């Protein structure tokens, strides 16, 4: 009887042990599944998706993507508060990252790899955000009508000789706001206001369309100069639309202010969310994005400049030559954004 009882007890013990083992395994599985990061992003390029997939394959960390405009994402993070699932925020300009930081939506992400890879002027001083790719806002000119010797600086675009020849998008656009912010930072508000008024004076038409549309307008003969971000020219030249290719080929690149402060640059960048539930994995993700290998894919795919100095730009960008860039800390662009909007209004830049 006792023997039987002991056998039964033993059997129960085995079963419960097995049960314990099984549940241990189950937890392991659950933990494995929970390796993920949530990325709020304003970027919308197919190549980004491929890069994220490679990261998933390499690390087993899933990248959950939420896409919207930077303003919408910032608002979302604000209303979600400490319940926000966001680990990271990617925007297409530094100004919005500065704004997110000012609203207390970001936190410091310390990593030796990130620190030594990204040059100081392309990241936040407190490591709240980092540049991922770099673009310059440049002048493109009609190859048949303009001689590059006639060009020099952003400031010189207000000269009388460019009357009715300049194409540029509206002042509501963040790229123009950041360019004007850089002019305020470098020349002061008064000079910047004169500049904006002088530009309006030389407009070929009332501002409309995006950067690519300005280049198409040059092809259509509506103006001779356009101010655009570098990668849009890459997109035009490599477009599947014949008219876009023709527009891209009708113009040449001019990097302004090379004798002075350098051409205005901006970044597409990434910030560490204040309440990031998966901070360690999020840091791994940033480290991955700034590695030489990924930088070359990341930047080249969208005709941008890498932020990692060891990575080389695409053939097309190399063909435009090296250029001097304005070293103004990008934080300034965000800080002066409001002032830039006011100056645009005063100058009646639509
Ligand atoms: Fe853009």
Share in helix: 40-55%
* Poorly predicted runs of 5 or more residues: 9-31
Which series of helices and strands comes N to C?
HEHEHEHHEEHHHEHHEEHHEHHH
Rounded to the nearest angstrom, the distance between the terminal CA atoms is 97 Å
What oligomeric state do the depicted chains represent?
Answer: single chain
Q: Give the rounded overall mean pLDDT.
A: 91
CATH class of the largest domain: Alpha Beta
Identify the bound ligands. Answer: fe (iii) ion
User: What structural class results from the helix and strand content?
Assistant: alpha/beta
Number of domains: 2
Largest sheet: 9 strands, mixed
β-strand amount: 5-15%
Count of helix runs? 15
CATH superfamily of the largest domain: Periplasmic binding protein-like II
Annotation, overall tally of beta strands: 9
At CATH's second level, what is the architecture of the largest domain?
A: 3-Layer(aba) Sandwich
Q: Overall 3D geometry?
A: globular
